[in-house]
Amino acid sequence: MSKRVRVRFAPSPTGGLHLGGVRTVLYNYLFAKKHGGDFLVRIEDTDQSRYVPGAEEYIFDTLKWCGLEPDESVQHGGKAGPYRQSERKDKYREYAEQLVKDGYAYYAFDTPGELEKMRQDLKTEHHSSSQYDHTIRMKMKNSLTLAEGETEKLLAAGTKHVIRIKMPEQETVSFTDMIRGEVSFETSLVDDKVLLKADGMPTYHLAVVVDDHLMEISHAFRGEEWLPSAPVHILLWKYLFGLENMPQWAHFPLILGPTGKLSKRDGAKYGFPVFAMNWTDPKTGELTEGFKEKGFLPEAFINLLALLGWNDGTEQELFSKEELVEKFSMERVHSAGAKFDYEKAKWFNHEWIKKSGVQGLRFEVRSLLTKNGITVGDDNLLDNVIELVKDRCTLLPDFIQQSSFFFKTPETWDTESVKPKWNQDKKNFFVAYAEKMQSAGEWNVAALESSFKELAVEKNIKPGELQLPLRIMLVGGKFGPPVFHIAELLGKEESVRRINLSLPLLGI
RNA sequence: GGCCCGUUCGUCUAAGGGUUAGGACACCACCCUUUCACGGUGGUGAUACGAGUUCGAAUCUCGUACGGGCUACCA
């Protein structure tokens, strides 16, 4: 069994991609790369009523931002296409009919109204299940119950119908999940799932099996929410292509919000993003914020996602994509769901900002500042500023407050922080210090600091009491890196100018 | 309700029969710093419960409780 590793991410384009989705992509990608295999993306758009314009493009934009590009997809091409199920529509019917022919499925002509009635009746009977299963299928209108020749007649007349799988009455279906080990189900408890819908499109159950076969998928990974329908897929593999050709399965643990499976609502309610990037619902115009726009680095995003349900067994927590590819293993993926913790997510981002070199941050910081009306100029100053302030930035937008004042003279000064302790002596000090700066030969942190302290001693004022006023004059507020570092980068002219500009505002 | 999956500090997790049950986030204290952070040191804090197997169980088995998922002509 040395089949080439081929895995797939199979989203349905119905909206933004959330944390769980991206993590599924990530684990697929890591597994494929680790084993030198292929990672494909297949668009599962068999439900036309749920089609959302822009959603497919959004998925690819997200993968690109994350650096998890597929080897084969609608956008990347490949030999196993088309990669959009709606374009593969004609492939599915023959498999469904083959199943009918072999006695593993049947035609069903029940109308939605009849199904509804069946469910109502069963409910009032206070039976446990309201499923279309072996206990009731002989009471419904299908090719199992119709008189000889009746089915053919209906079919020939073009009657709306679906094809349902005929679940065995007494069988135990089991398979080995790479994460959970052996999992088994009693077929008598599973309903006769629809395989082919009345509109001729396959349901997920048929499509996933047929396409995984046609695309030669070796390992099928998906979220835990699919576990209950696995027996249907196992049976389909057995009937159609043989169990020996079936991919190996792994069902990933769910990513949980404060209450249950993480949802878009959780994000809005608790104030953290759940989508990878901003998503605007084309129908309602509602915007859901993304990690990207919130100020996360893709490296951090991937890192935090990888650790939500997996670890390498050591105490290492910071991994680059390359390290993840090297160290990832399905055996170390957890079976229990993981609750998402936004505080920890921010910690990852902070670590990655600190870890990142200036060149990796330059573009983002520049565009952020520009967007906020700051003219940045050449890379030289920008690079120095980034190097100086990045340790105090958790999210990218933190760079705005931490560095705007390097490029733009403050418009307002927080004089209230200084005024209560302000006096004539201090004012004299700054007049003198500005003059001293003006004539300074050396312009660096050490020189600035020592001349500041010397002058303070000379004027008999504690240097500590003068630092906050200096900061306010240069920065405008109580923030930013150490003052002398600020003055150094600001340069002589600008530093002196800001002192002279703000000094009168303090009065006396 | 039925079926399936799961259960170690508040959160993410390590420890696959023998450890004072380790680390990280968050929190608290102290140090550094008379901006705010970063950083450093220390601290609070967990094996859901009950049986069993075993000389020995967080680790294996069973039961209970709790949590989650699924139960559509949606994926």
The count of DSSP E runs of length 2 or more, i.e. the number of strands, is 13
Cα distance spanning the termini: 87 Å
Secondary-structure class: mainly alpha
Strand content: 5-15%
Q: What gyration radius follows from the Cα positions, in whole Å?
A: 32 Å
Provide the residue-averaged pLDDT. Answer: 94
The helix count comes to 20
Stretches with pLDDT under 50, minimum 5 residues: none
Shape: elongated
Helical amount: 40-55%
Largest sheet: 3 strands, antiparallel
Strand order of the largest sheet: 3-4-7
What does this structure look like?
44% of the residues lie in helices and 10% in strands. The protein is mainly α. The strands form six sheets. The chain has a three-stranded antiparallel sheet with strand order 3-4-7. A two-stranded parallel ribbon has the order 1-2. A hairpin with a 3-residue loop joins β5 and β6. The mean pLDDT is 94. The protein binds one RNA strand of 75 nucleotides through β6, β13, α12 and α18.
Give the gist of this structure.
It contains 20 helices and 13 strands. The chain is mainly α and 508 residues long.
Index terms:
508 residues, RNA-binding, three-stranded antiparallel sheet, mainly alpha, elongated, two-stranded parallel ribbon
